[in-house]
Structure formats: structure tokens, C-alpha cells
Amino acid sequence: MKGFLGVLPPVLLLDPMLRVWLMEDIGRGDRTTQALLSQHHTSVQARWVAKAEGIIAGLPIAARVFYLLNDQINFVALKAEGDKCQAGEVVAEITGAWDGLLMGERVALNLVMRLSGIASLTNMYVEKIADLPTKFVDTRKTTPGLRILEKYASAVGGATNHRMGLDDAVMIKDNHIVAAGSITKAIQQVRSQVPYPLSIEVETEAIEQVEEALQCQAEIIMLDNMSLDLMTQAVSLIRQQDKRVKIEASGNISLDTIRSVAQVGVDFISSSAPVTQSRWLDLSMRLM
């Protein structure tokens, strides 16, 4: 990969989460490591080895896990974020007190395996449409407590982040439309209260809804669960009436369908699949 759009969370946000996860795992103490501690005070070296091919994400976060346990532990990433690794390849080397390495091993590995799995599947989607102008974006279907990291991994894989939360954009979905009474009423009510410069996106499922969203000057129109034929009609209508409107396609997007959807001419394709369907990238730590 030639780079990614991911921005590492600042330690102000990251460290409190990592401390909670470390405390969850360590509990009242690592009984195994502590029982052996009096016999082993030396510094040791370890390697992280990939057991499958994939895209690496989260190594700087793993380094922070070990730092919180012992700031003398030296974690050296041998792969940059977004790099591809092969099975058997060493992706990181760690040197430091052996108790710190063993107590931090599981939390650090779990995070990197989870994030690398997301980055790997995301990249497969991104590569399917790499030669087209359509951008692949993620969703809010994330694990509670892990959103900032899972969206970071998505960006490492090459996706563009969609909303991080309910507060950074307006998306009028089907239930909002039902609650308001219509797309027109929903947009009118939201527009009278939304702060500048938040944009308004409307979810549509039929041509009539697309027309209504256009009349109300929505900035982004989502084509949700539409067939390719219906989506083609909707894109043509939107482009003819207002070329400034951005178009997002969503719903039932898979590796088999994403390219056909992109070729319709939408600006964005969103999917939760890289987060909800990805498998962890298997890694192991081996003391040397």
C-alpha cells in the first residue's frame, strides 16, 4: 500500500482505554509470572510473527500497551502501518523486562490481530475499486468501546471514515423520516437547528424519495438497498438536477458486488462488512 488515511488516537484518549483493558486481564496480578519473578529478573527479547498473510494495523498501539507496563520496554515495529505481511514474517521485535512482556502480551496481540483483520478485509474492498473514482467508506457498526480503533484500522486498510458519531454529521434515515412524517419535514426541522457547517444526508429507497431529497437540497443522498437498475436511474436523476450533490450507495455490499455498484457512478460506497465480518490476523509472540 502507498499509505493510508488513518490517524492514531492521541495518548490522552488511548491510554485510559489501554489501562482498563490491562487491568481487566491482569486483575489482582499475573499469578504465573509473579510466581516465577524471583527467579527471572533479566531482560529478554521477543518477536512477533505473523501466521497468515494480511495488512498490519495497530503496532504503535501495542507499543503503548507495553510502555504503560514498563517504560523501559523497547518495542520496534518492523512493518509500517498498512504494510502487507506474509505468514512466517517477523513484524515486530521487543526487548525488556520479561514480566512486562508477558503481562502485556495478550492485550497487545489481541488489539493488533483485531485491527489487522479489519485493515486486511477493508483493503480487499478498496482494491476492488482502486481504479475507479468511488471511495469506500466505513459505518457506525462498530464494537462499543472500540470504535475509534476500529475506524482507525479501517482507514489503515484504505477506507475513508464516515461519521465517527451522531454529533459530527446529519443523516436522516428511514426511522427519522417516519418520525417526522416525510423527508421534507425531516430536512426542514433539522436544517432549522443544525449548526454550520454540518451537511445533511438523506437515506432513500425509491426514486420518489430521491426526488424529494433533491427538492429539499440535501447535500448527500444515500441509495439504500437499491437494485443496480434502480440505482442507475437514481444516479442519472441526481446528476441531471444537481451535480453538487454527493451520492452514497449502501446495503448488501460484498466483494462480489462492490465493483458493479461503483461503476454506476456513485461517489461513495459504505459497508460495515470489514468490521463485522473480518477475521483476526493471527500473530504470536515468541521469546528468543
TrEMBL record:
Substrate binds at residues 106, 139-141, 163, 173, 203, 224, 250-252, 271-273. Its EC number is 2.4.2.19. Pathway: Cofactor biosynthesis; NAD(+) biosynthesis; nicotinate D-ribonucleotide from quinolinate: step 1/1. It catalyses: nicotinate beta-D-ribonucleotide + CO2 + diphosphate = quinolinate + 5-phospho-alpha-D-ribose 1-diphosphate + 2 H(+). Residues 30-116 form the Quinolinate phosphoribosyl transferase N-terminal domain. It is an enzyme of class 2 (transferase). InterPro entries: Aldolase_TIM, NadC, NadC/ModD, Nicotinate_pribotase-like_C, Quinolinate_PRibosylTase_N_sf, Quinolinate_PRibosylTrfase_C, Quinolinate_PRibosylTrfase_N. Keywords: Glycosyltransferase, Pyridine nucleotide biosynthesis, Transferase. SUPFAM superfamilies: Nicotinate/Quinolinate PRTase C-terminal domain-like, Nicotinate/Quinolinate PRTase N-terminal domain-like. GO terms for molecular function: nicotinate-nucleotide diphosphorylase (carboxylating) activity. GO terms for biological process: NAD+ biosynthetic process; quinolinate catabolic process. Coiled coil: none annotated. Hexamer formed by 3 homodimers. Belongs to the NadC/ModD family. This is Probable nicotinate-nucleotide pyrophosphorylase [carboxylating]. It comes from Cylindrospermopsis raciborskii CS-506_A. The lineage of its organism: Bacteria, Bacillati, Cyanobacteriota, Cyanophyceae, Nostocales.
